[in-house]
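Thread: flavin-adenine dinucleotide complex, take 2
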Amino acid sequence: MRIVVIGGGAAGYFAAIHARTTDPTAEVFLFERTRTPLAKVRISGGGRCNVTHDERGSRRLAANYPRGERFLRKAFQQFAVNGTVEWFAARGVRLKTEKDGRMFPVSDRSSTIIEALQEAAARAGVRVRLGLPVTHIRAGPPFLTRITDAAHFSADRVIVATGGAPRASGLQWLQDLGVAIVPPVPSLFTLNLPEDGITALMGVTVDRVRLTISGTRIEATGPLLITHWGLSGPAALRLSAWGAIMLHERGYETEVRIDWTGGTKVGKVHSVIDALRSERSDKILRNCAPFGLPNRVWTYLVDRVRIRPGKRCGDLGRHDRDRLTEVLINDRHTMRGKTTFKEEFVTAGGVDLKHVDPHTMMSRTVPGLFFAGEVLDIDGITGGFNFQAAWTTGAIAGRHAVLS
Ligand SMILES: Cc1cc2nc3c(=O)[nH]c(=O)nc-3n(C[C@H](O)[C@H](O)[C@H](O)COP(=O)(O)OP(=O)(O)OC[C@H]3O[C@@H](n4cnc5c(N)ncnc54)[C@H](O)[C@@H]3O)c2cc1C
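Output below.
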C-alpha cells in the first residue's frame, strides 16, 4: 500500500503520521511544494500557535464552524479536542488553557508544535519530500500524481491536504478529477468603517457587544475592539465568519448594528435608564455609563443622540430615555470594506462536503481519494477551531486511507 499525502501543513502531517502509525507496513510519502513545511503553524496565533479550544462536547465544539458544522459533528465522534490534547501530551507537549478557552503550548512557542509534528513524522517513517508541488492527479487506484511537469508518482491512495485556496482557479486540478468545489471566499477579517466618528474611540475595548448585519439574522456576540479603521476583536471576527458569504455577495458594503448592551431586552434597558433618572438624579450623565461601558463609549453614544453629556441624569425626559435606549441597542454604522486579520485568516469554501464521507474523509465520487484540512469547505471562528478541524480531518483521513 502506497499513500501520497499532498501538502505539508498541519492536516497533511497529521494524516501522514496517522496513516503510518495505523499501518506501519504502508509506504507514506508527503509532498510539500515549498521548502518550509508547517509554515502556517509557525506564524499562527501570533507565533504561539493556538492549537485548539477547550470545548469537549462534539455538538458544542461543532457549533463554532460556520461551514462544516454538521459534517464535523460526525467527525468529532472519532477525534476531537481530547484526542489533540492527548496526542501532543504523549509527545511531551503540554497545552495550557487561557481564560477564553484558547489552548496553547505551555512554551508559548509554535516551534514546539512544529518539532513535535516533525519528530513524530520521522519516527513513524513518513517520507517527507520538500520543494515538490503536485500539479495534477489522474484518478485511480492506482492514482498517478504529477509532480512538477516531469515526474510522475503512483499511489494506491491520495490524501489532499493543500490548505485553503483563495481563488477557485487554485482548485481547478481537483475539479478536473471530478471533485465538486464550493467557490472560496475569505473569512476572519475586521470591518472597515471609513469616515465614521466611532474610529475616534480607537483602542477602546468593550467586554460584550452584539453585532448584527442589517436585514439578516447573522449576528455575533463577544468583546469588541475599536481600531482607527473600524471594528475588530472577537465579535467583529465572528461576524465576518458567520457572514463571510453574505458580506462577499454585498461587496463588503453593508449596514452593521451594534448592540452595546450585548443583547439586553428593551424593557430592561428602559429600567436601567429610568434608574439613572431617579436614583442618580444629581449626577452628570457622562459619568454614569451603564452596562459597564467605558466612559468614552458612553459619552460618544450620548453625543450621538444629541443629548448634552453634561446634563444631569434627573433632567432626562422620557424621550431622552427612548433615544438612549435606541442607540444602546441599535447603533447603526456603514461597513465599507474589510481588512485581513493578521493573527488568523482562513478561506470559506473548498471541497464540497456533500461529496465527502465524514466518517472516513474519502471522496464519494473518487474512491481512494481523501481530503484533510482547510481544502475542505470547513472553517471555524477564531480561537483554535481551524487547527482542530485540521487535526480531526487529518487523523481520520490518515487512518482510513490505510484501512479502506
Ligand atoms: C496568520 C495566520 C494565523 C493563524 N493562526 C491560527 C491559530 O492560532 N489557530 C488556528 O486554529 N488556526 C489558525 N490559522 C488557520 C490555520 O493556520 C489553518 O486553518 C491551517 O493551517 C490549515 O491547515 P492545512 O494543513 O489544511 O493547510 P496549510 O497549513 O495551508 O498547509 C497546506 C500545505 O500544502 C502545501 N501545498 C499546497 N498546494 C500544494 C501542492 N499542489 N503540492 C504540494 N504541496 C502543496 C502548502 O505549501 C502548505 O504547506 C491561522 C492562519 C493564518 C493565515
